[in-house]
Amino acid sequence: MTQKFKHTCIASFAALCCMGVLNSCSPTASETIPLSIIPAPAVLEQQAGTFKPNAETVLVMPSAEQAYGLLGEMLNLHLQPIVGKQLQTATESSSNNAIRLVLTDSMPTTIETDSPKEGYKLDVTKQGITITATTQAGLFYGVQSLVQMISPEGVPLATIQDAPRFAYRGMHLDVSRNFYDKAFIIKMLDWMSFYKLNTFHWHLTDGAGWRIDIKKYPRLTSEAAFRGEADWKKWWDGDRKFVSSNTPNAYGGFYTQEDIKEVVAYAATKHITVLPEIEMPGHSEEVFVAYPELSCSGKPYKNSDFCIGNEATFTFVEEVLTEVMALFPSEYIHIGGDEAGKTAWKTCPKCKQRMRKEGLANVDELQSYMIKRVEKFLLANNRKLMGWDEITEGGLAPEATVMCWRSEDHAIKAAKQGHDVVMSPGSHMYLDFYQADPKNEPAAIGGYTPVKRVYSYEPMAGALTAEEAKHILGVQANLWTEYVPNEDHVEYMLFPRILALAEVGWSPKADRDWNNFKPRLNNHITMLHANDVNAFPLSYELEVTMKVDTINKNIVVELDAERFPAEIRFTTDGTTPTATSPIYSDAIIVKDSSNIVAAIFEDGKLMGTPSSKRVDYHRGIGKKITYNSKLYSGYMAGGEQALLDGYRGGFTYLDGRWQGYTNSLDAVIDMGEETEIHQVSSRFMQLTGPGVYQPGSVEILISSDGKTFTPCGIVATEVSPAIDVLTFQTYTLNGAWKGRYLQVKASEVNKRKFIFLDEIVIW
Ligand code: ACM
Description:
Layout: H1 13-18, E1 43-51, E2 58-60, H2 66-83, E3 88-90, E4 98-103, E5 120-124, E6 129-133, H3 136-147, E7 155-162, E8 168-174, H4 182-194, E9 199-203, E10 205-206, E11 209-210, H5 219-223, E12 226-227, H6 232-237, E13 242-243, E14 251-252, H7 257-269, E15 273-280, H8 285-290, H9 311-327, E16 332-336, H10 343-347, H11 349-358, H12 363-380, E17 384-388, E18 401-404, H13 408-416, E19 421-423, H14 426-429, H15 451-455, H16 466-469, E20 472-479, H17 487-494, H18 497-506, H19 514-530, E21 542-549, E22 554-561, E23 567-571, E24 588-590, E25 593-602, E26 605-616, E27 624-627, E28 659-662, E29 664-686, E30 697-703, E31 710-716, E32 727-747, E33 754-762
Parallel strand pairs: 2-3, 2-4, 4-6, 8-9, 8-20, 9-15, 15-16, 16-17, 17-18, 18-19, 19-20
Antiparallel strand pairs: 1-7, 5-6, 5-7, 10-11, 12-13, 12-14, 21-22, 22-24, 23-25, 25-26, 27-29, 28-33, 29-32, 29-33, 30-31, 30-32
The structure holds acetamide.
Acetamide (ACM) binds at residues 338-339, 388, 405.
């Protein structure tokens, strides 16, 4: 194995440990040093004091195998600053002053786990350190914990019993939309293993470029791995044409088979399985640039789905997968399966003939025919098929494993049918989403998934029996890279959110505690930055959460920061807080209206941009609402009452607060009795990427009998449809009206797709 990439990223980590970045310095003899291990071990018992390795300490390994040599190198790197030299290594020693890695036959801990072979026990006593495990992987993870424990004073006395909660802990990277080179992949593998992630899902093919050399189909990389425009969005919105690699300004690349072998072998030394994904039948536009005969039209730049009626498709797929299997020893091969358009299949003579011949009722079943056939091929080659949850449509292949990215329902259904499942939902595990207020962040695909949301994810989908729950193999976070143009930006999106992922995948559910994680997270950010990882530095914004209390008729507002420690000051009158504004310590109770503005202060200085939230315990809360227009399916937010529940939608329409409509909203609110009303307002979102636009205007009407409505007024939009960043407008009408029924009408005049709103506030 090449040594070129060995431990690239952690060379200076040792120094940082010794600077006390992760673990604090200079405790008194009776104090324990607070540790910052991520992911948190299942059981950690600490005592006061440390073991301080010295020049006489012996590193005792189970054997002279290279795998242990690697662990020895790792330990030496981190201990060098306190020992001053390399530790002597032996396979046997009677010395007490030792760091021993011991392989045993039986599990050294009683931790409940899906993956005992990854477990370990770590004992730090005054005399020395022992890590015990049944496998090299277990010892490897013990060493990862140990290196995170080193402080300038030595290694704190402790006993750790540890094993992962889930056997599958994955990170996905899309290298099609943008390409990142081999050295960068190696760097990411180092950090994945540091955080005990064990599966790298390599999304190697997609419509924006084919990234793996296939000997039998050389045109995939000579015709479809480079494009004339580096900027994905410009290219996608433009001609979407590919060019050859020697075209001036050609952007792209691919991995040679030697590159792949090197990455796979390197990953194995870090106990990471590389899971290759070869997309089919959809997301395959680039294939048809090189081999147009595999699409229904037979022409390049026309289709995104393989022609399933054409036998040549199966020859291609099997020959490509044969080369892929020779390169990747993984138990699973991921075949994509997501978001096939399926349109061309409906009229394609070959597809129609296939459907007739095979008795397939519709195009879903046609897709299922392909997935089942590919599964048969993989099984015959002793591999298992994994695919995105669309592979459930039209009938799931008998032994397929489902990677759930849409709703939990798909996971529950698959697990109930006895299929294994990996949880990777867009709601929590999509790292291409914004991690802070979009207006302060580089462009992302949309959404809002701050690190706290990733941390809050519970992969064990509800409504499963204990037996069914065994099918949940684990969890994965995905980084799609449409808006991730370079490697620095990949790091910015992955870190620190994969630290939260690591803890979700590894640590016991009962111990998951954001307030415990937060200080450790902050320490790791400092360490990552000093190690040349461009981690998102955590936001100075504040999370403002509301609890609407309809019994006491108030709203309880809580503030939280990612930063730790954080001195939070706030106002309730909409003004910017100053260094003398009240310090936030307890929840703020709002009985009517409040315009809360809060910020973090450091040394008397306001940091970042203040966060604000309008909070109204208004008169519409809980009133009956009827809709004359249809909600856009899937965007019913918090149910029928979401527009009148007191809760405000945040930065994403996926947060369960925003109500989505196709083009127009027409709703009637029953105030229950004749009521004097003097203000009605409603807030709408614009996010043009997924087709969400401001309404042309919002009109309010009033009625006493619910039949005859009188207009109160109309407010026009001030937001141009050309604005393509996330934008909000509140439409407010003031007046003096009396009635029982209020009608709210809003429509997207250009019929561009969707309008989203929350909340309607009535005073
Ligand atoms: C996906 O996000 N299309 C799997």
